[in-house]
Amino acid sequence: MRAQVVYIFHNCFVVHAGEHTLLFDCPAPQYLPKRSAAALAPELRGRNVTAFVSHSHTDHCHPDLASVCAEAAGARFVVSDDVADLYPASVPAGALVLEPDQTGGIDGIGIETLASNDLGLAFVLEVEGLRLYHGGDLAAWVWDTASPAEKAFTAGFFSAALERIAARPVDIAFTNVDRRLPNLAGGPEFATKVRPRVLVPMHAFGRPAWLADAAPALAAGGSSVFLYRRPGDRLDLPDGVTTTKDHA
Questions:
Q1: Do 82 and 53 touch, CB atoms closer than 8 A?
Q2: How far is the C-alpha of 164 from the C-alpha of 167, rounded, in Å?
């Protein structure tokens, strides 16, 4: 099964898997530079697109996602319930609105949701025999300014989520790796506990060059790490990567 990952901006990526094109966390225009918008458009044009919105923060949530997907052959939308609550006008007609800890599906894509420890959801998906994870803003947000109790709660919440995600092999994982935190928002912990076949670091605010410095820690669990540099950079699923069908 061939698959391809395309970097757009921040936490926004496209995945092509068979007949499916998945769009994750397309941000509002102020967080979508012209070169990123230009890279995104051809990835959606004429394709069957399923767009996921993990939560309502504007660096993850475009206010008119239907217009973003206007040139797709077909478009379906999966959004977090906080988006529907806070910005109902931005939810396209017919969208699947999900809460944490739900399972479901749309257009042949299996969906499981996890609660984020920031806002909204993280997604675990089954598509074309692949198991994908996109974390939204779920991460080990252990800030130096937090109290000891807050730090302990955040670390425990994240570790529990990793156990759940790692219960079955993960083919492609998009997880936050943020250099503002000494623990890189839990990216290295994710890498060693979940051990995805391909790890895609995200949450770089359009400045991803520094991710090369984090690559050894992110590869410590044996993952291939996608080190993108500019919008439109792409990674083909490595030949040696098996899919969940191979584990059935």
A1: no
A2: 5
With a CB cutoff of 8 Å and minimum separation 6, the contacts of 92 are 65, 66, 75, 77
From the list 38, 39, 48, the residue with the least C-alpha distance to 16 is: 48
Q: Residue 167, exposed/middle/buried by CB under 10 A (0-12, 13-18, 19+)?
A: exposed
What are the φ and ψ backbone dihedral angles of 30, each rounded to 5 degrees? Answer: -70, -15
Which residues neighbour 10 within 8 Å (Cβ) at sequence distance 6 or greater? 25, 27, 31, 59, 60, 202, 203, 204, 205, 206
**pTM (whole model) above 0.85:** yes
What sign results for the dihedral spanned by CA atoms 77, 82, 84, 89? negative
Kindly list the distances between the CA atom of residue 200 and the CA atoms of 19, 75, 136, 214, 243, in Å, as whole numbers in the listed order. 22, 24, 12, 12, 17
Q: How many CB atoms lie within 10 A of CB 7?
A: 24
What is the per-residue pLDDT for 190?
98
Task: List pLDDT tens digits, range 189-218.
Answer: 999 999 999 999 999 999 999 999 999 999
Let me know: does 198 contact 241? Beta carbons within 8 Å: yes
CB-CB neighbours of 19 under 10 Å? 11
CA-nearest of 172, 197, 199 to 188 is 199
Q: Rounded distance, CA 121 to CA 53, Å?
A: 8
Backbone angles phi, psi at 176, to 5 degrees: -70, 135
| Phi, psi angle pair for 184, to nearest 5° | 55, 35
